[in-house]
Amino acid sequence: MAEIELKEDRDSRLREVAHPHSPVAHFSADEPLKLDAGVALGPFQIAYQTYGTLNAARSNAVLVCHALTGDQHVANAHPVTGKPGWWETMVGPGKPIDTERYFVISPNVVGACMGTTGPASLDPATAQVYGLDFPVITIRDMVRAQAMLLDRLGVETLFSVAGGSMGGMQVLQWAASYPERVFSALPIATAARHSAQNIAFHEVGRQAVMADPEWKGGRYFAAGTKPHRGLAVARMGAHITYLSDAALHRKFGRKFQDRDNPTFSFDADFEVESYLRHQGSTFVERFDANSYLYLTRAMDYFDLAADYDGVLANAFRGTPTRFCVISFTSDWLFPTSDSRAIVHALNAGGARVSFAEIETDKGHDAFLLDEPELFAIVRGFLDGAGRARGLAKG
Amino acid sequence: MTSVLMRQDRTMADAACETGGVRLDHLLVADMVEPGSRVLDVGCGDGELLKLLETRGVDGRGIELSREGVNECVAKGLAVIQGNADTDLADYPDDAFDYVILSQTLQATQHPRLVLEHLLRIARHAVVSFPNFGHWRIRLQIMFRGRMPMTANLPDTWYDTPNIHFCTIKDFRELCDTAGAKMEKAVALNAWGRPLRFNAPWWFWNLLGEQAVFLLSRRA
């Protein structure tokens, strides 16, 4: 009886991996994804969502790249959690990325767990879940896979590529790898290289996952266990880095959770503790622990300048792409100085670049939240780019 | 000295003619810029000058210190970055632009000479405007009141002003010599932003011009 329950539970975890609530592009073993790690991944699949309509000139496609724990469900209810899409404030009819005007494509990245091939997928060679047999992937691999998806969809050029955090890294990689395919780019709250501090935070998260006895060396699907505690701790730690001292204080202060006095125990006395535990426990329901290892690793390896003789400007020299770089004052994970480094390189490369720093106390997560200034800037930038591109007003 | 300059000799009537809601000093600056060129506007404010330039086919970029100004510009579809003339000009490569505009900002920089040198490194031409501290009203205030001057155009107290490096038209000419800048055009403006109509000697401009606009080029 207990074993049957476990099996059903395992299947539900795998449901979105193999058969997502999204269209899926399949790539056969004959058209593998060539990875930076030196191996070819194939067959593989990409799950994606689209919103709006591709115009006759095929000139209005916008690629939205998701962050570490995001997915393709940008502007529709999440099939697992039922919550609104992660960027519904930004993407939709009449929104800054207006789906009445643009054709929005949002793929799940390689290595993730919402329908695009990742460590939770079945390895065709063994008919087992990949686990740690999945090759290590990079941001460039993600972008390469997205380019294959666009080829499949018949989209040669993108009117814009937009994304925050890890999504912003993909935006920068897109502009560097395929400048002629990218008319405009919106890297938000991101960096051209992952900082030592951020690698350190990621390592703590990975160690939390791997320290969970239920992780079983990455073979928890076969073992029928769930490394939920480790993944939840990883998420709790990471979540702190997405906020700010001021935002935490404003939201929780030192308030107690459902009690008037401390319990003199290690129960979640404080609201902030209760909040973090909730963040951890809801996250594990929708995310695969090994995917978390792979995607954090991909971010750690990201150093765009390294591919261009250590000079970031070389990545953008003579680029036809117009850029709008955005940062947030209270973001200490991807501070404004990271964005400035991008802007300096773009200027040195002769790119047409705008840069705005938005004042907010909401920290790194601000790019996902209701920030009217962010919306005004994105809308203005895309309107301007649309005029230059000759797109009709929606 | 006057022979190297093409002094503008515009009448009040010229200056006051229909501007379509565009600031007079912006029109003056825009007229110094060749249509279709690449322009960097340092201290571009709300981006109105850049917008005016873009109507003339200029590929314009901007730098602006204030966050509000930048965000307003980007929302208008202009290519503007948040930055500082003192620190950020160094990041631009040589000859990145045809013109650099520094409008009413020189006196607020930490290192005006360095800034001017960067302008002439980044672009072949620089358009620089600044308030003239040699204007008679300012001279009179110091002379008779014995205090730091405050005028309609310069309303801040000495301890609460962004303007830390005032100069006169005469001083600026000297800086241009030191920094290797050649003066192509010079216009002195009265309090209302209108060009002085007189083709007068420098000392006269230095006394009557409230502001000055210079078109400079790199000395060969």
Q: In words, what does this structure look like?
A:
The complex is a heterodimer of chains A (394) and B (220). Chain A is of the alpha/beta class. Chain A folds into 2 domains: 2-193 and 306-389, Rossmann fold, CATH 3.40.50.1820; 199-296, Rna Polymerase Sigma Factor, Chain: A. Chain A is built from 11 helices and 14 strands. In chain A, the strands form 4 sheets. In chain A, strands 1-4-8-5-11-12-13-14 form an 8-stranded mixed β-sheet, with helices on both faces. Chain A has a two-stranded antiparallel sheet with strand order 2-3. The N and C termini of chain A lie far apart (57 Å). Mean pLDDT of chain A is 94; it is low at 1-10. Chain B is of the alpha/beta class and 220 residues long. Chain B has one domain (2-218): Rossmann fold. Helix content of chain B is 33%, strand content 22%. Chain B has 9 helices and 7 strands, in the order ααβαβαβαβαβααβαβ. Chain B has helices at 12-16, 24-32, 48-54, 67-75, 85-88, 112-122, 136-145, 169-179, 202-208, and strands spanning 38-42, 59-64, 79-82, 97-103, 123-131, 181-189, 211-218. In chain B, strands 3-2-1-4-5-7-6 form a 7-stranded mixed β-sheet, sandwiched between helices. In chain B, α3 (48-54) links the parallel β1 (38-42) and β2. The longest helix of chain B is centred in the middle third of the chain and has 11 residues, at 112-122. The radius of gyration of chain B is 17 Å and the shape is globular. The model of chain B is unreliable at 1-18 (pLDDT under 50).
